């Protein structure tokens, strides 16, 4: 793999707090991947931003009684704070309304026009008489002509993922007012001639080896159905202005400028630093490996439209080396919904429980091969079984025993390893290698299953070694204590990409040096001999607690869409 790694997460839309499905669909797995690579000494740049343009932002700002720019500023601040509380380690969390994105979007348009890939066309658009405005594509709703989904948007059907035009819809209506008094009017717009780039896009897709079938199947489906040219301007005021005479009253389509923000946010990051440069991160001939994370509905834009922009600009820009896409996380089999008070959103989740509870469960159930479903009972069961009874119990058992038997310092010992230790070294070596392999290949469910097996191996060892059965002066018991305490350190390091707060808490309690916090690279035997007497005995409270069933019942009511939902419910820390 190349020396540097660029990681981008799909941009969360500015309109509202994101739910758990949004979190696990791009931002959280991207964070774990970036943290893992950093822990292995890789040079990583992790970029994200808020996607701020388009009609939804305008309408939400109007509802809030704010100018759209101020609304977006406030919402960006809110989303950045929630990202911080969930420990998302962005190197930069930018904004698509930035000056850098305006500059780069207009630059890409100019290059595409220069290369004959832009065409002016008169288009038929939906005009809402009752709303007295042209309706942007996504604000026309109707029945998909391809699959019959009755709530398809005018830009894309969420059910079959086909790109649409509003005029394709059957029985269209305004998403703003619900009005069916719509008529078709003519408007001049600019089109990106994607059809001219179809062969280059297909060659690029077919050259990608090892991409998830979810990604390649969607991209190939689009190409096989015939790539259509795409309008890249809209009749709006909020967005990147079109830098072409005669189009001063229009802005670029949000899906044209939003992916360019990956590049612009990198420039934003560099502009905030001293002596930083940004262009080499986006050079096609450089030393960067580029990985994108997104939900499946974003795949068409990232495998077709954004690459068409990059390829069409013909200016040595970097295309992604790997795209990781996720299916949906559902809530009791249905969609998360703000209006129906259905599902858990990031702001509520982080007030109920610490971030690591959510991070672990979401990644252990990441919707990779199929959709995954959140239920409170499943969540509580996994918290108790994996975090409290397996990981937390191991840490609690060995640290409490060490303190009660040997006091403030780890015991001295000079005994030889037995077959029990040798078997542990072999087992851990195999499991850690598998864990690393799954993280390298972006397979998060498999990685967390392996991490849980690593924890179980420690519990089995401790039970079989049974240091509590040995007399205090017997060396065998002292060896087991030393192994156990070092397993606590090792587990904290291995869990650090997934549960950074818990990892930091443990490593601080062990008074670990910077070197002792590094990823294990040598023999496991050496890793389990790092901490020895006269190291102080760590003192740790319970790391994780099972969730009270009474709380689960309260949360089911609060977040399940019940008309009798509670306005507030206590957090674990409050009980």
Could you describe the 3D structure shown?
This protein is α/β, with parallel strands linked by helices and 575 residues long. Helices cover 45% and strands 14% of the residues. It has helices spanning 20-39, 55-64, 68-85, 99-114, 198-207, 213-224, 254-271, 299-313, 346-352, 355-364, 376-406, 419-440, 444-465, 475-495, 500-509, 524-527, 549-559; strands spanning 4-9, 43-50, 92-95, 118-128, 133-134, 140-143, 152-153, 170-174, 182-192, 230-231, 233-234, 251-252, 288-295, 322-326, 329-331, 372-374. The model is unreliable at 561-575 (pLDDT under 50). The protein is elongated, with a radius of gyration of 27 Å. The strands form five sheets. It has a five-stranded parallel β-sheet with strand order 3-2-1-13-14, sandwiched between helices. A four-stranded antiparallel β-sheet has the order 5-4-9-10. Strands 7-6-8 form a three-stranded antiparallel β-sheet, with no helix packed on it. The protein has a domain at 375-527: Orthogonal Bundle (Isoleucyl-tRNA Synthetase, Domain 1), CATH 1.10.730.
Compact overview of the structure:
The protein has a domain at 375-527: Orthogonal Bundle (Isoleucyl-tRNA Synthetase, Domain 1), CATH 1.10.730.10. It is built from 17 helices and 16 strands. It is 45% helix and 14% strand.
Helices and strands in order, then pairings?
Blueprint: E1 4-9, H1 20-39, E2 43-50, H2 55-64, H3 68-85, E3 92-95, H4 99-114, E4 118-128, E5 133-134, E6 140-143, E7 152-153, E8 170-174, E9 182-192, H5 198-207, H6 213-224, E10 230-231, E11 233-234, E12 251-252, H7 254-271, E13 288-295, H8 299-313, E14 322-326, E15 329-331, H9 346-352, H10 355-364, E16 372-374, H11 376-406, H12 419-440, H13 444-465, H14 475-495, H15 500-509, H16 524-527, H17 549-559
Parallel strand pairs: 1-2, 1-13, 2-3, 13-14, 15-16
Antiparallel strand pairs: 4-5, 4-9, 6-7, 6-8, 9-10, 11-12
């Amino acid at each position: 793999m190349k020396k540097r790694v660029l990681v981008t997460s799909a941009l969360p839309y500015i309109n509202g707090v994101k739910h758990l499905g949004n979190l696990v669909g791009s931002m959280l797995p991207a964070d774990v991947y970036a943290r893992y690579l950093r822990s292995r000494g890789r040079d990583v740049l992790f970029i994200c931003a808020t996607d701020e343009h388009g009609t939804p932002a305008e309408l939400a700002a109007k509802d809030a009684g704010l100018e759209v720019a101020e609304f977006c500023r406030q919402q960006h601040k809110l989303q950045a704070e929630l990202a911080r509380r969930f420990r998302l380690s962005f190197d930069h969390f930018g904004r698509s309304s930035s000056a850098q994105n305006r500059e780069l979007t207009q630059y890409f348009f100019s290059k595409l026009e220069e290369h004959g890939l832009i065409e002016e066309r008169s288009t038929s658009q939906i005009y809402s008489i009752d709303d007295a405005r042209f309706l942007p594509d996504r604000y026309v709703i109707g029945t998909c002509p391809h699959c019959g989904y009755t709530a398809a948007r005018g830009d894309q059907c969420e059910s079959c993922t086909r790109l649409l035009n509003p005029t394709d819809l059957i029985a269209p209506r305004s998403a703003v007012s619900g009005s069916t008094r719509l008529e078709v009017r003519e408007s001049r717009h600019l089109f990106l001639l994607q059809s001219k780039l179809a062969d280059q896009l297909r060659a690029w897709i077919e050259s990608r080896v090892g991409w998830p079938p979810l990604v390649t199947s969607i991209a190939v489906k689009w190409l096989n159905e015939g790539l259509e040219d795409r309008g890249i301007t809209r009749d709006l005021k909020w967005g990147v202005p079109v830098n072409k005479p005669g189009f001063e009253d229009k802005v670029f389509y949000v899906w044209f400028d939003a992916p360019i923000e990956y590049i612009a946010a990198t420039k934003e990051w560099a502009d905030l630093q001293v002596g930083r440069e940004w262009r080499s991160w986006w050079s096609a001939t450089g030393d960067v490996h580029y990985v994108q994370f997104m939900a499946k509905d974003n795949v068409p834009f990232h495998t077709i439209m954004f690459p068409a922009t990059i390829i069409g600009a013909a200016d040595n820009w970097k295309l992604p080396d790997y795209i990781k896409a996720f299916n949906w996380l559902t809530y009791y089999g249905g969609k998360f919904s703000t209006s129906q008070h259905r599902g858990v959103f990031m702001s509520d989740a982080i007030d109920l429980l610490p971030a690591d509870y959510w991070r672990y469960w979401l990644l252990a159930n990441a919707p990779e091969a199929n959709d995954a479903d959140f239920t409170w009972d499943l969540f509580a069961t996994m918290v108790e079984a994996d975090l409290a009874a397996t990981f937390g119990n191991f840490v609690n058992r060995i640290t409490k025993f060490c303190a009660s038997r040997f006091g403030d310092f780890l015991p001295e010992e000079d005994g030889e390893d037995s077959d029990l230790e040798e078997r542990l070294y072999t087992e851990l070596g195999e499991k850690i290698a598998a864990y690393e392999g799954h993280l390298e290949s972006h397979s998060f469910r498999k990685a967390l299953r392996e991490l849980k097996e690593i924890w179980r191996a420690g519990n089995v060892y401790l039970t079989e070694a049974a240091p509590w059965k040995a007399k205090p002066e017997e060396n065998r018991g002292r060896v087991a204590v030393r192994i156990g305490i070092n397993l606590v350190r090792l587990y904290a390091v291995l869990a650090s990409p997934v549960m950074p707060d818990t990892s930091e808490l443990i490593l601080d309690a062990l008074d670990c040096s910077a070197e002792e916090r590094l990823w294990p690279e040598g023999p496991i035997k050496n890793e389990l001999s790092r901490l020895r007497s006269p190291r102080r005995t760590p003192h740790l409270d319970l790391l994780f607690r099972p969730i009270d069933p009474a709380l689960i019942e309260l949360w089911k009511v609060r977040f399940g869409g019940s008309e009798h939902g509670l306005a507030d419910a206590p957090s674990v820390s409050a009980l």
